[in-house]
Amino acid sequence: MIANIQRLITLGLLSSALAWALYFWQRGEVVWAWVGALMLVFGYTIFLALEFALLAFRQDSSSRVPRASRAQLIRAWWGEILTAPLVFCWRQPFRASAVPNHLPVHAAGRRGVVLVHGFFCNRALWNPWMVKLRASDTPFVAVSLEPPFGSIDTYTNAIDDAVTQIKSVTGLAPIIVAHSMGGLAVRAWLAKTVDDASVHHVITIGTPHHGTWLARFGQTRNARQMRIQSPWLLRLAAIEPPSSYTKFTCFFSHCDNIVFPASTATLTGAANRHVPGAAHVQLAFHGEIFTEMQHRLGQSTESPQHAELADAPPALKSNRFLESTKRPG
Predict the structure, then answer these.
(1) Which residues are paired to 249 by β-bridges?
(2) Are residues 19 and 75 in the same domain?
(3) E strands, the chain, where?
(4) Do 207 and 313 reside in the same domain of the chain?
(5) Is the domain of 31 the same as that of 159?
(6) Closest Cα to residue 187, out of 148, 232, 221, 231?
(7) Across residues 297-315, what is the average pLDDT?
(8) Which residue segment(s) compose the domain that 122 sits in?
(9) What is the dihedral of CA 55, 56, 58, 62, to 10 degrees?
(10) What is the pLDDT of residue 242?
(11) Helix/strand/coil for 249
(12) End-to-end CA distance of the chain, in Å?
């Protein structure tokens, strides 16, 4: 469903920009033709700027997380400008099935990976990861959480099915890597399962474990559940055994424009890792996180930063390669 929605949004914006440009061009108003078309195509940069402005206003006031500098916020904004269209206007709308799950018959005794996306995303978020995992013959399943705007509790069955698939071919509990809301879905699944050995380790990336300030503007059911001190989050924390957090590594950033204040993406008792200067979607492709997953698997191969280009439109590949080499870390 998310692929269909994002396909309509992408094609609608491009069609609107083209129609605007043609209309004013035919009237001889060339400046208006260009300005209007560019505003339609690149208007998302303004919304991103607003998110970063709110982040700057609501940064952690404690010393637990270093405050992001203005330069770091600007660089993160630019990084998200480059990353977001590739995810939301190309991979997820048009490449959701480009990289199938990998469940090789010879995988017994090799630990696998379950990939869980976040809000308003689908499995194609992980395409760069999946390209690298297939190259190393690592078993993996990437889920698509449906319905996209329902309760987070409804996503636990998809995670359970993915874990079962991995265990059936490997015989081992998988590592779960979850971005954003996906980390909450994993926690909800763990709270329901009676087998504490169902997962080897959980890596969360920019997950609003304690909610996010920005969710106050969200009206979907899962967005309301991600509000700070939401009843759903409080109930989840109340039924989780505190020891469960020792299986978590939580990556977070003080430049996360969706999940802030930054400390809300941490858990007491978990290995909490701060990644300076990374925005929310950009954080999912940070080399340090892929390296952590490889360490947990007992592997050592390159990060997904260059694999991120594998399913990019040809026109973007050269520019994205140059930019990927400049990312923090």
Answers:
(1) 203, 271
(2) yes
(3) 113-116, 140-142, 175-179, 201-205, 248-252, 271-274
(4) yes
(5) no
(6) 232
(7) 53
(8) 113-324
(9) 120
(10) 73
(11) strand
(12) 34
Same domain, 201 and 274: yes
In 3D space, the residue among 76, 149, 162 whose CA is nearest the CA of residue 118 turns out to be 149
Tokens of 234: 């409080």
Instruction: With respect to residue 105, please indicate whether it lies within any of the assigned structural domains.
Output: no
In a domain, 291, yes or no: yes
Total domains present in the chain: 2
- Report the amino acid identity of residue 199: V
Tokens of 185: 């879905």
CB contact at 8 A, 255 and 280: no
Residues 6+ apart with CB under 8 A from 76: 52, 68, 253, 255, 257, 277, 278, 279, 282
**310 domain residue, yes or no:** yes
User: Residues 225-245: pLDDT tens digits?
Assistant: 999 999 999 999 999 987 889
- The three-class DSSP label of residue 327 is coil
- Buried/exposed 253-285: b ≥16 CB within 10 Å, e otherwise: bbbbbbbbbbbbbbbeebbbbbbebbbbbbbbb
Position 300 scores a pLDDT of 47
Could you tell me if residue 103 is inside a domain? no
3-class SS of residue 50: helix
Q: For the segment 91-134, what is each residue's pLDDT rounded down to a tens digit?
A: 999 999 999 999 999 999 999 999 999 999 999 999 999 999 99
pLDDT in tens, 187-235: 999 999 867 789 999 999 999 999 999 999 999 999 999 999 999 999 9
In 3D, which of 47, 129, 132 has the Cα closest to residue 84?
A: 47
Asked whether residue 258 falls in the same domain as residue 210, the answer is yes
**The pLDDT value given to residue 196:** 74
Q: Tell me which residue of 131, 123, 113, 127 sits closest to 170, measured CA to CA.
A: 113
Tokens 């329901």 — which residue?
A: 192
